[in-house]
Amino acid sequence: MEGILTEERAAFLERDFYQGFIKTCGFKLDVLERGRAKSSLEVTEGHSQQDSFVHAGVMATMADHTAGYAAFSVVPEDSRILTLEFKINFLRPAVGHRLICRAKVVKEGKNILVADSEVYSQRDGVEKIAAKALVTLMAVPATALRA
Amino acid sequence: MEGILTEERAAFLERDFYQGFIKTCGFKLDVLERGRAKSSLEVTEGHSQQDSFVHAGVMATMADHTAGYAAFSVVPEDSRILTLEFKINFLRPAVGHRLICRAKVVKEGKNILVADSEVYSQRDGVEKIAAKALVTLMAVPATALRA
Amino acid sequence: MEGILTEERAAFLERDFYQGFIKTCGFKLDVLERGRAKSSLEVTEGHSQQDSFVHAGVMATMADHTAGYAAFSVVPEDSRILTLEFKINFLRPAVGHRLICRAKVVKEGKNILVADSEVYSQRDGVEKIAAKALVTLMAVPATALRA
Amino acid sequence: MEGILTEERAAFLERDFYQGFIKTCGFKLDVLERGRAKSSLEVTEGHSQQDSFVHAGVMATMADHTAGYAAFSVVPEDSRILTLEFKINFLRPAVGHRLICRAKVVKEGKNILVADSEVYSQRDGVEKIAAKALVTLMAVPATALRA
Hints:
The structure is a homotetramer.
Chain A lengths: L6 H11 L2 H6 L2 E6 L2 E7 L13 H17 L6 E12 L7 E11 L3 E12 L2 E16 L6
Antiparallel strand pairs in A: 1-2, 2-4, 3-6, 4-5, 5-6
């Protein structure tokens, strides 16, 4: 991958990360490098499903959003990122008090980007993979979204 | 599909639907029939992403959870439903004030169920499809989850 | 959906359908309408997997290729179609002597199209759904592929 | 992962790999270790699509089948493997003379296994990733398939 992620751009993306549903959920952006992002979540009762595990939707949102910012880090500054689709496998019930998500861009096209996104559950210092996703994203000019 | 969904069972599933992350998100179960469920959401700023559309994670959670209760409606009462995986395509940015999700079970196996789940965006009385998902679910004995 | 599928274009696409791997597999294009395609396959031993069912790869290829030509039928004549990704659920082992695939475009964007593709197995006159796919396709100018 | 892959079992699986559609396609099993498999294909005109690239269906079949044998290598000898579903992203048109697929089991459950499967295209000694898949598989007793 060419190009670099400037400090100004990284600072912009970090602010941009926290809005709307992401604030509602409580995700935190821990690391943003070119083509990679890491986020985390302190799990509360407000993230659970009917059997007290973390809801699949929490992990799906985390996998998607973290992949989105990994993608943002490689596109031009006047581009915005939209998720075209994703697929996520839930590998084991997430029971920990903390989730961590690591996403990386695996294909960087001009318009289409593909990212691999993994969610880990932390409990008593042990980290286990809980979900694995493949995310297809599209870079669109910011002007195209303001119509 | 054999069997019926008794009133008692439907009432139990309706209560079971609203917990943890689903309360956080604000989804409402509108209809539950055998093999089918319909849910809705009044969209607020707390559901948005960085470009003011509804966040992909909101639609993914809605598609997954509604599919889950469509699946619950066909399995024995001592079974619980876990999502093994899903895939969701975002067909257009969701800009409406209300989302509607319709899920139906398309394959009812003993252990594995597959559901089709669609999310629609409502705006000024017009309903447009915003996302389409395929969800793979597993029925497990409730006792297996209490270990 | 606007536009029509001219007879000339349909005839071109029908010839274009049969090439390389599709000839190897033996798929037949039965119907091509704007946004929809139907194909079929006479199943032989050469399509089986280790347990004598039709191989998942046969159904995946059929779902993808039929979706591709449904997409071809709605794009300009100087566009080519590439599959970005697909997901397919295998709903039951396919044991019939004939497969049928029905694909339809569910979202027709300028560059990105999404199709729903279903594979049915026929046996003794009874048709059962065997697989269900969601396919994301991209329309690219033919000139872009000749580089 | 516990257990080992005995020489006898590996030899059985190697023979089992080549049947029906896999013979038709010409895939070769190069390596089989516990939880991992590597296969290859000498690309011919019979594997192409309408723009002379390798057909998406070839890569999908390879990703699925190789993942299947990675899964076979970790289940009891009286188990058979069925693909429940998979998702595959095509990262770049495959133009090489040789394809290589590497699959590994990323979650080994009693009944449900998940594998990650990647297809690489080789051309002039350079190997590039062409496709990436996530595959969900189910282990079933061999006796259940003979009904």
